[in-house]
Amino acid sequence: MALAASRFFPHPPNFTSLIALSFYIPAIFGARYLPALVVSFILTDFIIGFHQVTLFTWGSVLVIGLSAKFFLFNTRNRIFGALIGAFLFYIITNFGVWSSGIYGYNIKGLISCYILAIPFFGNTLLATMIYSAIIESVMKYFKFSKKVKIE
After folding, report:
1. Which residue, of 7, 86, 90, 122, has the greatest Cβ tally within 10 A?
2. Count of domains forming the chain
């Protein structure tokens, strides 16, 4: 629900809770909640609109969620894992942008695509750090999870 709601609030490009929630929901509750994440994307994309990179976005959510289990040891590792998720999102979705043909199907186009996406990546990293800190604070306050070691 938080993921769906966050997509409708006005925000700078790529400054959403997307990466943090894609990482923390499976980390806290388990990979069985990955379909719920993807369904929330599908439902909100029906309203926001589909685009050529939609499947790459959904795919990145799956990859980030599946990688979460490797970063459960402590707060530092989880935040690092969420930031790795931001990097994965950048790599996967911008590959999708490049594969749409906008930049040309050559190495120059691929490099241009990734370079021109750097400002958006900055927003993704900042949002991921902020939302991860919020989630970690809530987890600590409520001693939320039995699966995730809270330090």
Report:
1. 86
2. 1
Q: What integer pLDDT is reported at residue 47 of this predicted model?
A: 85
Residue 2 within a domain: no
122 domain-assigned: yes
Q: What is the CA radius of gyration of the chain?
A: 16
DSSP label of 71: G
Has residue 1 got a pLDDT over 80? no
What percent of the chain stands above pLDDT 70? 89
Q: How many angstroms separate the CA atoms of 40 and 4, rounded?
A: 6
Which ranges in the chain belong to alpha helices (H)?
Answer: 2-6, 18-29, 34-48, 54-67, 75-99, 107-116, 118-142
DSSP 104-119: -SSHHHHHHHHHHTHH
pLDDT at 145 over 60: no
